[in-house]
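Entry, Tuesday afternoon. Goal for today is a structural model of the target with zinc ion bound, before we commit to ordering more compound. Inputs were pasted exactly as handed over by J.K., no edits. I checked the ligand SMILES twice against the vendor sheet because last time a stereocentre got dropped in transcription.
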Amino acid sequence: MKISFYGAAREVTGSCFCVETDGKKILIDCGLQQGSNNGFGQSFPFHPGEIDYVIITHAHIDHSGRLPLLVKNGFKGSIFATEPTCKLLDIMLRDSAHIQELEALWASRKKRRAGAAATEPLYTMEDALRVFPLLVPCRYGENIEIDRAVSFLFTDAGHLLGSAYVEMWLKEDNLNGGLIEKKIVFSGDIGTPGHPIIREPEFVDEADIVIMESTYGDRSHAHSFDTVTELAKVIEHILVKGGNVVCPSFAIGRTQDLLYHIREIKERGLVKSVPDFPVYLDSPLAKAATKLYSEELTDYLNEETLALIESGVQPLSFEGLNIVETSEDSKRLNDDKTPKVIISSSGMCDAGRIRHHLKHNLWRQECAVVFTGFQALGTLGRIIVDGVESSVSLFGEEIAVRCQIHNFRSMSSHADKGELLNWIKSFKKKPECVFVVHGEEETCKGFALKLIEEDYKAIAPKYTSIYDLETFEPDFEGRDLIKRSDLDRTERRDSPVFQRLMLAGMRLVEVISRNKGGPNKDLAKFADQIDSLSNKWDK
Ligand SMILES: [Zn+2]
Ligand SMILES: [Zn+2]
């Protein structure tokens, strides 16, 4: 029984873990890397054809965005997710494929002009469409036996509509003819109490092993902060000055939260000087997600939101809300001088229409950019939030950062340090081991140390590390992340042939770890063969 950490290990994005028991391999999450990464691009450090099943905790792209790549590279099994997650994935993955195709097209044009070969997209719409027939929608609490040795259920994580912890039971015969049984819990992303629209995060009673996120494992959200009042103040202040309020926002989750808050601001008349201010929702993906929230997925909303609907209020709609459809209309927004609120994605500003709005508003002192979600290291969003650069590069142009920058951490849908500790302490008995993931390097290490202080066995695993689930000893220590400064010098996306080579290399590492404990003579022969191969290629 083993676990491998193939992503979100000492970093926030790219969630991907693999559990191995009784000869079966189950992948939990298959997320896209965003911003800075581990230096391996989006390549998988394993062979997708070897995976038997996939379980997805929630629809955010850093937990699901590499599913089309997995299918493209040979995965053929079932993909389990809650019903809302399956519905949200349908729009998320199409959008992601569209972005991948567009980016490759732009890159190819540039390369062709330089006389180089075209760039292949990471995956295409066709690859994304091949994911959907594999999806198996599940209910919360439904016990699913996927194999003689593996069963699991989803529990509400209160982080996003459909988000879940995975409670999983594993069995394996041991060498002495006995049976090993373990319960392992994957936290996915843990929600924060009192969040609008969605239900409260639940707690889990017991587990032998816990894999838990630590995004905000080093800080507390200001709970006394009144989001609605403060947001209204920013909107009033900026619109009166004649500027725009630009909100980079994750299309699923944060956009709906913003719409919910702005509806309340308008209902309560909190922006006194311009009560009927215009709001533009400029993201086809956010529009489709909002429609799902308002129509097909209402069964999953919290009581407060359901009560609004019953009283005839549309929680995510209001007077003055404009939906921008085409990219021409999106660009035209920049010529319209009326002060307005613009909500657009992507949330970390690394792709999508938001980049145009930043180009036209960042340099204007009378404008504001309001961030509402976590900004991963290396993304444009993080550079702006950190405020260390006086200008940023957009579409080949240097754009000065002169507008106001606000970061509404209170809108986060991630538990903070205290809430993460409450969550782990709610287990009736201390788990045998807690693996801390989904946090920046220092945060993961720091949170694991905090748990050790509290008498837990806690580990912050490295990328590609493999741990035995009985002894918690590493079969493979994993690798250190490549520093951002080194990364900048390398090409971000690996060529398909290089990706194949990486896969082959990673498989070799796996084969090595499987041979642990074998006869010395065989191990020595294996080592000689690898050495001779390396000598040949180490130019
Ligand atoms: Zn998430
Ligand atoms: Zn996440």
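The chain has a mean pLDDT of 92.
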